[in-house]
Design brief:
Shape: rod-shaped
Largest sheet: none
Number of strands: 0
Oligomer: single chain
Distance between the termini: 60 Å
Amino acid sequence: MQQHLFDTYRAARLGEPAPPAPGTHDVAVLREIRDRRRFTRVLAGRPARGALRLRFRLAFARRAQTR
């Protein structure tokens, strides 16, 4: 928090835009980490897990019933 205040003061003195508040992009970073981990699992050839695997099963079951 103190570093943010120092950076805000410095930006104001130099006429630069203020830095974003701490925690502003935390949710986006966590989503990106999650997506990256899922992507590397797919590249490694490991099957999908949990809700994603269930969705695949349901989609393929519906497709098989319509044929």
